[in-house]
Amino acid sequence: MMRKILVIVGSGKLHGNTNQLSDEFIRGALETGHQVKKVNLTENIQGCKGCGVCQNNGHHCVIRDMMKDIYPLFDEADTIVMASPLYFWSLSARLKSFIDRLYAISTDDEYPQKDTVLLMTSGSDEFYAFEQAVSFYRFFIKALGWKDQGMVLAGSCITKQTETAVKEHFLNEAYCLGKRI
Ligand SMILES: Cc1cc2nc3c(=O)[nH]c(=O)nc-3n(C[C@H](O)[C@H](O)[C@H](O)COP(=O)(O)O)c2cc1C
Question: Could you read off the pLDDT of 59-117 as tens digits, one per residue?
């Protein structure tokens, strides 16, 4: 079945590790014949204000920022790929703001059904590095009723100013996940 995949990259670096990992996933997904759109959260996405206006005005968020272009892409996608660098043992604030702002499209805390994937990169190679992030991801998708289709957690990335360095086997994992999803 052809999927409509939306890849949300919560890294400030357009050519960093997280984009490198995401692009391998996308390469695999395109080869399988899926339709893919990628959005980099390079502009600031403001946090949800909790004003609740969205619940009474046809699900429009009052904040006018990059999210207004993302809501329609989110609507048409059946699969949401969330990609983030590990920041202080958690998801990046950019990605978290995207998640919080999805509140606008909920009705009585019910969300549209989506399949989902988590892609992450980190500097650390400790086995527990992604524990908090993965725990959050599992809780959050369970609450929304979404279905996990796989994760790639790429530890020990070397970060230089000009080069990206995600380990080859993680790039391959991401490519294979994109291909088989
Ligand atoms: C603000 C900040 C916080 C970070 N926190 C962690 C961390 O808690 N654990 C870790 O292993 N790496 C941490 N890193 C390293 C990044 O997760 C890692 O370099 C990542 O691959 C960067 O992805 P990017 O190239 O897409 O920005 C941090 C980097 C930054 C800039």
Answer: 999 999 999 999 999 999 999 999 999 999 999 999 999 999 999 999 999 999 999 99
What gap in Å lies between CA 24 and CA 28, rounded to an integer? 6
**Residue 150 CB neighbours (<10 A):** 18
Q: Are 149 and 1 in contact (CB under 8 A)?
A: no
Top mutation candidate among 20, 159, 162, 166 for ligand 1, by most atoms within 8 Å of CB: 159
Quickly list H helices, the chain: 17-32, 67-76, 93-101, 131-144, 168-180
Beta bridge partners of 107: 110
Give the nearest ligand 1 atom to 121 CA.
Answer: 21
- Domain borders along the chain are 4-180
CB 97 within 8 A of CB 46: yes
pTM of the full structure: 0.97
CATH topology for 4-180 is Rossmann fold (3.40.50)
